[in-house]
Amino acid sequence: MRIPRRNCAIWLTTVLITVFSVALSLQIRSPVCTDSGSLFCRLYHYIGFYNLAWRLEKLTLLIKTERGFLPTAEKSDVFSHPVLWMAPFLSSGGYCSEALSYIVGMSKSGLVPYLHVEHHGDLAQEIFWRGLPADIKDIIIKSYKPERPLNNTIVICHSEPGAWYPSLFETHTCPPTGYEEPLHVIGRTMFETDRVNLEHVKRCNRMEEVWVPSDFNMKTFADSGVDPSKLVKVVQSVDVSFFSPHDVEAFPLPETGQVFALEKEESDRTSIIDHFIFLSIFKWEYRKGWHLLIKAYLREFSAKDRVALYILTNAYHTDRTYRDDIIAYVKEIGLKKPVHGWPLLYVNDYHIPQLRLPNIYKAANAFVLPSRGEGWGRPHVEAMSMGLPVIATNWSGMTEYMTETNSYPIYVERLVEVEEGPFKGHLWAEPSATHLQSLMRHVFMNPLEAEAKGQLARKTMVEKYSPEIVTKQIVGHLMRIHSKKTAKCSTDA
Ligand SMILES: *[C@@H]1O[C@H](CO)[C@@H](O)[C@H](O)[C@H]1NC(C)=O
Ligand SMILES: *[C@@H]1O[C@H](CO)[C@@H](O)[C@H](O)[C@H]1NC(C)=O
To answer: Which chain positions lie within coiled-coil regions (predicted)?
Structure first.
């Protein structure tokens, strides 16, 4: 490759600044700064290493993008205009991990060099931040530089519409200064029932575009009154190199939280070693279908089967009464203890740092979750990316990526009304507990078939939902929007 002269000059400056900032950081006296008390020297120390390092990075970015020096991307693929992505990056939860997977993809690809991120939506949690892998923290810190003014920026508000400007609760609103200033405003959201409530429809229609993850939401949003011309399908990505079964150790699952531990004497097998482990990860809420899961599992298995159901949960506006909830429910539906004793059942809510999640999935043989509706199904795709066979409801967000070839969809008997909460009256799925029961038995009895499906699941994730692939789709949309906008501006002028 021929390097133009201007690039040489920029590289030379870069090298000089590097040497200078390293010297400064090592407290080496510069030859021009002999009197450390002088204004000049104090100024330089005040500017400091970080500032210089920051400039250095800007400069490298400039070289990379303006001069076509990008190692991985063709210049024509690079979106070299500012993008402000606002999402609950530091909150854990579905929107958060989705948003992280997007910015990781964009940042690693080098295709969106002027990407800025800001926290928005739910409250930031320090414990979540501490558990993030170092490279993800790095990407957030580097991109955390709000760009102002916003008039040439595409802003993406990635959260539930209640957080959008003007927000219904206290948060950094998005877009920060309302809808007028930015070049273009996109709402990224999703919903798990058969419709979207009126307030959210109104908020969606204030956006110039609304990005939803699935055909399911393309339909439910349009049917609820969101302008169909604003709807764009942008699938979620999953970090297939982080959630990868290769070179990951299985984490020995702590044998705490045994639901029937008090009846230990019923069985001498209280350890899950050598057992087939069904893993389930979800918030302790009705929507996740935990009743169905408990019913199907306890009806189907007994202590005679070398099987365990391991639930990892966290409280959802409730006390931590999981064990009592389960025991009360077992009584309510009149389940009797099997002759051979209850099968192993664990429910735990210890905090798992994001960094350790792959080790947890690796410890399981299958993933199961009969939820009544999901916007996308974050643990589902993580499990699939980890090569696990997944048993989950054949409705809502999951239908975008789960098929009978790559997983085990649970038959949906009918749609039923949501009975409580703000979405009372909407419809969602009633997955068949008997089908779930037979699928769990089938997977347990046919581990080789299940394993093969798990491999197909991983293949689907790698081929269709990897950050590389989804980043390209996002960049394509950004370019489409930008060229439409600038064409419009020039005809306006
Ligand atoms: C954006 O705003 C700045 C300052 O208000 C102004 O100088 C600039 O021309 C504007 N750019 C566009 C593209 O309107
Ligand atoms: C899942 O849903 C699809 C589409 O409605 C249907 O064709 C398929 O038979 C369903 N599979 C199961 C197991 O219910």
So the answer is: none
CATH number at residue 382: 3.40.50.2000
The neighbour count for residue 434, using CB atoms within 10 Å, is 13
- Protein residues with CB under 6 Å of any ligand 1 atom: 149, 151-152
308: helix, coil or strand? strand
How many domains are contained in the chain? 3
With CA atoms as reference, report the closest residue to 7 among 58, 77, 81, 59.
Answer: 59
Task: Please give the model's pTM, rounded to 2 decimal places.
Answer: 0.83
Our answer on whether the CB atom of 431 is closer than 6 Å to any ligand 2 atom is no
Pull the structure tokens for residue 355: 């960094």
Nearest to 425 by CA among 139, 83, 163, 195: 195
Q: How confident is the model at residue 23 (pLDDT cuts 50, 70, 90)?
A: low
Which residue has a Cα nearest atom 12 of ligand 2? 411
User: Could you tell me the CA-to-CA distances from 58 to 8, 52, 63, 66, 317 in Å, in that order?
Assistant: 17, 10, 9, 12, 44
Token pair of 217, please?
């939401």
Q: Give the model confidence (pLDDT) of 334-362 as tens digits.
A: 999 999 999 999 999 988 888 899 999 99
* CA quadruple 462, 465, 466, 468: dihedral sign: positive
Instruction: Report the separation in Å between the CA atom of 181 and the middle of ligand 1, taken as the mean of its atom positions.
Output: 10
Question: Which of 240, 233, 229, 201 lies closest to 216, judged by CA?
Answer: 233
Residue 335 lies in a domain: yes
